[in-house]
Amino acid sequence: MRIIAGEMRGRILKAVEGMMTRPTSDKVKGAIFNVLGDRVQDARVLDLFSGTGNLAFEALSRGAREAVLVEKSHNAHNVIRENMDRLGIGSKTKVLLVDAFKYLENNPDEVFNLIFLDPPYHKDLAAKSLAVLSCSSNLETNGVIIAETAKDEQLDVTDNTSHPLEVRKISLYGDTKVWYIQRMDI
Question: Which N-terminal residues, if any, form the signal peptide (predicted)?
């Protein structure tokens, strides 16, 4: 696993041992950032269920202003910190050892341009996260949530929320489905 573009291109990231995390492949990561394009520049990024920090670190390499990484696993949290230190980006990075839902509940005023949402598959965590985010102010108007799910999982984005979300694009890469969901201006 490595940073594939930007100022830290080619830098190797440590992975979490075992099968508890599923880092985004370089192919999928490259496709995500090609779709996002210039949206990454100067963005404030939230990486929920961050695992190794792969997506947030790629965003920082491509010009994001800062990133908040949320992970509840002690092992993954330690790997994120080690990767952050290897990359020398501590001043742009906040790493929190906390459950994603607790973070959202306790930080309703934190606003982000991009939110990466890559929870474990088949546990309904992406859908639950979207339900919370659609009722919060965490995503700026016209901000984007990039959610990864298994290819057979569905996400329902309803209109009955205080901050409407709209699925703008869905891409399939092998067993991974990537959802691009935008907060709409009301």
Answer: none
